[in-house]
Amino acid sequence: MFQRGWWVILFSGALAAAEGPTGNVIFLHPDGTSIGSWMATRLREAGPAGRLNWDELPNVAVYDGRLRDSLAASSHGGATTHAWGVRAPRENFGFIGPGARSLSGFAGPLMKEAQAAGKAVGLVQTGAHFEPGSAVHLVSAPKRSDEAAIMAALVESGAAVLLGGGEALFLPEGAAGRHGPGKRQDGRNLVAEAQHAGYTVLYTRDELAAVAEVKPGAKFLGLFAAGHTFNDRTEEELRAAGLPHYQPQAPTYAEMTAFALRVLAQAPRGFFLVAEEEGTDNFAGNNNAPGTLEAHARADAGIGVARAFLATHPDTLVLTASDSNAGGMTIVGPQADKLDPAQPLPARTSNGAPLDGREGTGTPPFMAKPDENGRALPFGISWGTGDDSAGGVVVRADGLNAGRVRGSMDNVDVYRVMYLTLFGRELARP
Questions:
Q1: How many domains does the chain have?
Q2: Fewest 10 Å CB contacts: which of 33, 62, 152, 294?
Q3: With 0-12 CB in 10 A as exposed, 13-18 as middle and 19+ as buried, what is 216?
């Protein structure tokens, strides 16, 4: 898969240096995550002295996610910037402007360019397929709310792997689906269209696990829930409705990522996978601390899958980044000797910020796994906002070209290191 050359190309003012080695790209996008949210996950899952898979990615950079018209990224504007290598307006969904080109000069996002070059491409999404962190890599839409049109464009994209939720918008209104009735207003049956295009359609975790053989060139569409594969509501609402954070019939982020890699690894010219854990963003937006931490643990398991793949496929870049800090999560660590861990935390901190314990507001604190001295210490989760905020986001990487992840990185640099890995050419910063 390695190629070398000695020429220089000029793409719309973006200088491409001499061609170097090429390989696969796995871009893991646990949306809305930050240093604070990963630290809280480490405390609960591994303890203060422990390490997550996220921690084991050796190359780290501080991330600048500003957009053309906003200092704090939206999910769709931030993802569009990753996909195109051009700083997008906040409200754009996979679209920069009429006649626009990506940083490389290609008339479309990086994933479309990779696909045009004969590389296999795939998307994993724990939300519905229309979620922007994955969808903008293949689809442009006038508005984020054009969900039905986004779903249709994904089916028409020809991607080798499309795994996620959102079955309701694949079926005509009222048509019976595996997870509920269809909601499309245009009468199209995208499931039938996908099958006609050669996709094997999977609906449950068990069906995904039962795929014994993946033939070269096979294509898979996963529809694992009517909407999202999680229930993104507050702790109190979920408790009242008797609902879990994640729907049990759906495969996990790690399981979907492992299956996608199993399919894409057969591609003779390499591949580009974007895999988004959306629950990290949506639960944080609802200030649901237990749900957010569960989503992070699932995201970390997906990072573990990518690390295992890298161990046997060194011509691969494993890259992970969010685009914003959802909810502005911070950790409040009261002194253990002055706190009864069985008693509820106050509903708010001293400056009025909402404070969550392990079952929501006004509940006992989370307990970290034991530290190096064997002591388990308490902590609470404080929220700064219900929106996406700037700051606290980092990029981490391992594998081919991971050394380019260092210091401070712009969101357009995420595109640049992925392009370098896929095509072996270095693009100048815009």
A1: 1
A2: 62
A3: exposed
User: What confidence tens digit (pLDDT) does each residue in 291-316 have?
Assistant: 999 999 999 999 999 999 999 999 99
Confidence of residue 16 (pLDDT cuts 50, 70, 90): very low
Angle at 405 between CA 401 and CA 411, to 5 degrees: 115
Please answer whether residues 328 and 383 qualify as being in contact, where contact means their C-beta atoms are separated by less than 8 angstroms. Answer: yes
Query: For residue 33, what are the domain limits?
Result: 9-329+383-423
CB distance 423 to 106 below 8 Å: no
pTM over 0.90: yes
CA angle 152-31-209, nearest 5°? Answer: 65
User: Residue 17 corresponds to which tokens in the numbers above?
Assistant: 């240096």
321 to 65, 66, 202: CA distances (angstroms): 10, 14, 28
pLDDT at 76: 86
Q: Is the pLDDT of residue 95 over 90?
A: no
Q: Confidence class of residue 242 from pLDDT cuts 50, 70 and 90?
A: very high
- Per-residue pLDDT at 12 exceeds 50: no
Phi and psi, residue 290, nearest 5°: -60, -40
| Beta carbons within 8 Å of 171's beta carbon, 6+ residues apart | 177, 181, 182, 183, 184, 189, 190, 191
Identify whether 342 is part of a domain.
Answer: no
CATH number at residue 255: 3.40.720.10
In a domain, 416, yes or no: yes
**Is the pLDDT assigned to residue 7 strictly greater than 50?**
no
Does residue 351 form part of some domain?
A: no
User: Is residue 298 in a domain?
Assistant: yes
Closest CA to 408 of 426, 389, 393: 393
